[in-house]
Design goal:
By secondary structure, the protein is mainly beta. The strands form 3 sheets. Strands 3, 4, 7, 11, 13 and 14 form a 6-stranded antiparallel β-sheet that branches. Strands 5, 6, 8, 9, 10 and 12 form a 6-stranded antiparallel β-sheet that branches. Strand 1 and strand 2 form a beta hairpin. It is elongated and about 60 Å long. The chain starts with 7 loop residues before the first strand and ends with a strand.
């Protein structure tokens, strides 16, 4: 006797998901920013560059009761000093107002050389109130410490230089996943 196990059942006519298993990933979206970006004004709140901060990172859930798994991966470089960078996370339904969730994430590093400081990764499982078919957009904002808050996004050097290089082609990203409930 054979057993068939499925996480979802699709309607053949249009591949619409008809049945799903709780906890399964129904769909995934990925948005990335690959250029080196520097923001050198301390203690100033800004939207991150490109799809990380312009609201284009979206997911349109199949079901109105799914959860959304938000994951951000940010590559912060630094120059000879210390750096404190903080990131705030937001979502919105369709073109509504931005809502901050969970307070965000951050990094702190001190070093005597110019290099890549760290890759920061965070994930949040969200249960926003929305209807199936709504577009849920996400963005990240950055603010640095008043005395060491420069952002050197994707600035990665393998030698002691302040050059705006991304020698390993690191991309900062937002991953969005619909999780069945």
């Amino acid at each position: 006797m054979s057993t068939v196990i499925a996480n979802a059942v699709l309607r053949p006519a249009d591949d619409k998901v008809m049945l799903r298993k709780s906890g399964c990933i129904m769909q995934s979206q990925q948005y990335e920013y690959s250029s080196v970006y520097e923001h050198t004004v301390n203690a100033t709140l800004i939207d991150m560059p490109g799809d990380l901060g312009n609201g284009n990172a979206t997911i349109t859930p199949y079901f109105g009761d799914s959860k959304i798994l938000f994951t951000a991966m940010i590559h912060c470089g630094h120059q000879t000093t210390w750096r404190s960078n903080f990131f705030r996370t937001f979502y919105r339904i369709n073109s509504g107002s931005w809502t901050q969730f969970y307070g965000g994430f951050g990094s702190n590093l001190y070093s005597g050389t110019n290099s890549m400081s760290q890759t920061i990764k965070c994930s949040y499982l969200l249960s926003p109130s929305y209807s199936a078919g709504n577009s849920i957009g996400f963005k990240i904002q950055h603010i640095g410490h008043a005395n060491g808050g420069y952002l050197h996004l994707n600035q990665i050097n393998l030698s002691n230089t302040t050059a705006n290089n991304n020698v390993i082609s690191a991309h900062s990203k937002i991953y969005l996943q619909e999780v069945a409930t």
